[in-house]
């Protein structure tokens, strides 16, 4: 295919896939071909994609490591747990406030340790002689300085290699303090395929060590847990504003703007609402198994999706007053949304987008682009499993590989004293018959247009090649891709941490997103961007001899 043909109006998904694979060695190309899917989903037949497999050595992946998923994503947004990285200082710094998780510690007596970067700062001698004594001293110092409710320890790669027993140290210090929970995570960066393994390790430990500790009753009539929302750019604040306005009480968020007590009280909710399916679906399952709390999939990204999710929650509770209040809130919020969308729609209709973000975001944000009349040409996740792409119906057929066995599977049974089904089997059956689906996620692929591209674990080369061929109006991904895409003259929206923007969730978030995308896709500055080698293909220089 000529270089001119690659930039044509008449490109086809088959051409693009072939061109992206052309420079790979045959063995690599075969593996990547199974992760690049042309969406041909028709009816109930969803095509199969290869996902949750290790990145091929030598390819510059966009993924994060297991440690980053555990410490940075799940525990990073929790403000009153002291999180100590046991390892070199670079690991601690990498996972410190890089996702712009916001929190509100304005209440009297509230603690906020998020601005601190806690690390044992392991040196060469610690690697040689072991770092357990240094870790113990760090835990003691943190306790003496802050007297927190909990201290969490995170293992990095060298810790796993030298064999420090962080769990033994945690048990020893917990027994010593008495009033401070100390627990550890074996989340060495190499332990899993991606950061997804870290999410699983983190949530398992939080569930086994913290959830259920606080049996005090929580005020509120309609109590939910919001799972898989990380309050990036203030998204969680906007969702909480809407829920409160509707009269819905959010007991616990996993884990945006979260606290130790929220985790400890999660079993007091009557419904779990899951945002990011990949990072948290197993916690929703465990809450149901142990305490009887059912769960539904929600999406607060996009005004229409927000309204739909609020109605789903109201339908579950079945209270006429709540249902009426939800409709009132939607009616109050939508005029501002509709006013902005009517303004931007003439300028954004027909524009194109690509989204390669985390696990669920590349799905959720397509709703916002659709509201703007924009078409998503390609999408994919960094750390998804097949069920995130194809739907949960494939879970029984997934094979457990060696990497998955690295993640501890905790056995959960119904709590003898506190297990209480929130609905009778008859009530659940009636709700399902009426269309409310429990424990259900249909995945990314069925919601994407026919003949669009779905790409798992997109890498740097493929991202640039995709943009070169298709030239979308906007590319959405993470910070690793940001500057390389911008140098190609395409606006790049960072949807891992929103750069300096947000919130984008809920009704007000949708308004923010409409304005920002309108500015990005209609700015002329991108057409003027030229890299130095484009301006001067042959650079010249002279030698200076001394």
CATH architecture of the domain at 66-189: 3-Layer(aba) Sandwich
Reading off the top of the CATH hierarchy, the class of the domain at 66-189 is best stated as: Alpha Beta
Task: Assign an overall shape.
Answer: globular
CATH topology of the domain at 66-189: Rossmann fold
In terms of structural class, how would the helical and strand content be classed? Answer: alpha/beta
Separation, N- and C-terminal Cα atoms: 50 Å
Helicity range of the residues? 40-55%
The fraction of residues assigned to DSSP E strands is 5-15%
Total beta strands: 14
Summarize the biggest pleated sheet.
6 strands, mixed
Report the C-alpha radius of gyration, rounded. Answer: 24 Å
The CATH superfamily label of the domain at 66-189 reads Nitrogenase molybdenum iron protein domain
Low-pLDDT parts are 1-8
Number of helices: 23
What's the pLDDT, averaged over the residues?
Answer: 93
* Sheet with most strands: strand arrangement: 1-12-11-10-13-14
Catalytic activity: N2 + 8 reduced [2Fe-2S]-[ferredoxin] + 16 ATP + 16 H2O = H2 + 8 oxidized [2Fe-2S]-[ferredoxin] + 2 NH4(+) + 16 ADP + 16 phosphate + 6 H(+)
Domain Nitrogenase/oxidoreductase component: 65-521
EC number: 1.18.6.1
Protein name: Nitrogenase protein alpha chain
């Amino acid at each position: 295919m000529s270089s001119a043909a690659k930039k044509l109006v008449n490109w086809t998904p088959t051409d693009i896939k072939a061109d992206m694979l052309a420079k790979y060695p045959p063995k690599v190309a075969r593996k990547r071909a199974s992760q690049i899917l042309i969406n041909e989903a028709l009816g109930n037949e969803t095509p199969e994609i290869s996902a949750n497999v290790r990145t091929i050595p030598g390819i510059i992946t966009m993924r994060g490591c297991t440690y980053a998923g555990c410490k940075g994503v799940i525990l990073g947004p929790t403000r009153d747990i002291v999180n100590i990285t046991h390892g070199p200082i670079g690991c601690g710094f990498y996972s410190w406030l890089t996702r712009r998780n916001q929190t509100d510690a304005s209440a009297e007596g509230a603690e906020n340790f998020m601005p601190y970067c806690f690390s044992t700062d392991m040196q060469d001698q610690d690697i040689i002689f072991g770092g357990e004594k240094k870790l113990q001293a760090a835990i003691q110092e943190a306790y003496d300085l802050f007297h927190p409710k909990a201290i969490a320890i995170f293992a990095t790669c060298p810790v796993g290699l030298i064999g420090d027993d962080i769990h033994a140290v945690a048990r020893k210090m917990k027994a010593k303090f008495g009033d401070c929970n100390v627990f550890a995570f074996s989340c060495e960066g190499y332990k899993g395929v991606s950061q997804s393994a870290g999410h699983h390790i983190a949530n398992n430990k939080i569930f086994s060590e913290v959830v259920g500790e606080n049996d005090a009753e929580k005020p509120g009539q309609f109590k939910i847990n919001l799972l898989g929302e990380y309050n990036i750019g203030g998204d969680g604040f906007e969702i909480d504003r809407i829920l409160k306005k509707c009269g819905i009480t959010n007991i616990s968020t996993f884990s945006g703007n979260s606290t130790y007590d929220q985790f400890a009280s999660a079993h007091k909710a009557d419904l779990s609402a899951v945002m990011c399916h990949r990072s948290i679906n197993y916690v929703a399952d465990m809450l149901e198994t142990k305490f009887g709390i059912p769960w539904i999939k929600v999406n607060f990204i996009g005004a229409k999706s927000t309204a739909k999710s609020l109605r789903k929650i109201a339908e579950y509770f079945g209270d006429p007053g709540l249902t009426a209040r939800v409709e009132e809130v939607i009616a109050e919020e939508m005029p501002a949304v509709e006013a902005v969308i009517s303004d931007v729609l003439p300028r954004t209709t027909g524009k194109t987008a690509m989204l390669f973000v985390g696990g669920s975001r590349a799905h959720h944000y397509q709703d916002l682009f659709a509201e703007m009349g924009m078409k998503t040409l390609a999408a994919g996740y960094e750390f998804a499993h097949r069920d995130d792409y194809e739907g949960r119906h494939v879970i029984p057929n997934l094979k457990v590989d060696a990497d998955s066995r690295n993640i501890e599977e905790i056995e959960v049974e119904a709590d003898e004293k506190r297990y209480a089904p929130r609905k009778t089997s008859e009530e659940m059956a009636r709700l399902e018959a009426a269309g409310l689906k429990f424990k259900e996620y249909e995945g990314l692929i069925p919601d994407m247009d026919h003949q669009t591209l779905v790409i798992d674990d997109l890498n740097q080369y493929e991202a640039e090649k995709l943009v070169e061929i298709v030239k979308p109006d906007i590319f959405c991904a993470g910070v690793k891709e940001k500057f390389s895409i911008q140098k190609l003259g395409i606006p790049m929206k960072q949807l891992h941490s929103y750069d300096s923007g947000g919130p984008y969730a809920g009704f007000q978030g949708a308004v923010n997103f409409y304005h920002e995308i309108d500015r990005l896709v209609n700015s002329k500055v991108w057409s003027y961007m030229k890299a130095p080698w484009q301006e001067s293909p042959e650079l010249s220089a002279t030698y200076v001899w001394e």
